[in-house]
Amino acid sequence: MAPTPELGAPAPDFTLPGIVLSGTEVERRDFTLSAHRGKPIVLAFYPGDDTPVCTKQMCAYNNELEKFTGIGAEVWGISPQDLESHEKFARRHGLQQPLLADPDKTVIRQYGVALKGLGLKRSVFLVDAAGVLRWKHVATFGLTFQPVATLTEQIAALA
C-alpha cells in the first residue's frame, strides 16, 4: 500500500465522477481537485454508502454543512461505490455535499488509504486553497470519524 501524502506537499490531483443532490434534483458531473483552488476542500474517504458509521459521518457533515461553507470550505465524500449507489444514499439521507465515486480505487490508493479486501481506511484530508495538504487523519479501525468541530477548527487555522 502506498503511503499517505506528506503534510505540506501538494495534494495529489484527481478527477472523479460524482453526484450532488440539490433539493430533489441530482446533478452528475466530474470533480477535479485542482479546479477548486481558492477554497479549502475536506476530502472525506468513507468505506461505504448506507453502512452505520459512514451514514452517521456523512449525515453529521451534511447537518452542519453551513459551518464548512461559512468558512469557505467544501466537503467531498469519496468511496468506492458507483454513482447509482451514491444517488440512493444521498436521496435517502438528504445529503447535499458532493459524493464522488472511485470504484477502481485509483484515488483511494493515491492517498494511501486502501485496505486489501476491505476497501479503505476511513480518512479525512484537508487541502488548503492553494492545493497543499495541511491536515490528515487516517483511522486505524474506522469505527469513529472526525467531528465537524475538529475539521472546522483545522480549516479556521489555515486563515
Task: Label this structure with key terms.
28% helix; alpha+beta; 159 residues; two-stranded antiparallel sheet; 9 strands; globular; 7-stranded mixed sheet
How many DSSP helices? 5
Share in helix: 25-40%
Shape, per Cα inertia axes: globular
> Which oligomeric form is depicted?
single chain
> Strand order, biggest sheet?
2-1-5-4-3-8-9
DSSP E strands, number: 9
Rg value: 14 Å
Structural class: alpha+beta
The largest sheet is:
7 strands, mixed
- What is the H/E string? EEEHHEHEHEEEEH
Strand content: 25-35%
What is the fold's blueprint, element by element?
Layout: E1 15-22, E2 25-32, E3 41-45, H1 52-63, H2 65-69, E4 74-79, H3 83-93, E5 99-101, H4 106-110, E6 114-115, E7 119-120, E8 123-127, E9 133-138, H5 148-158
Parallel strand pairs: 3-4, 4-5
Antiparallel strand pairs: 1-2, 1-5, 3-8, 6-7, 8-9
What does this structure look like?
With 159 residues, the chain is α+β, with helices and mostly antiparallel strands. 28% of the residues lie in helices and 28% in strands. It is built from 5 helices and 9 strands. The longest helix has 12 residues, at 52-63. It is globular and about 35 Å long. The mean pLDDT is 93.
Sum this structure up briefly:
With 159 residues, this protein is α+β, with helices and mostly antiparallel strands.
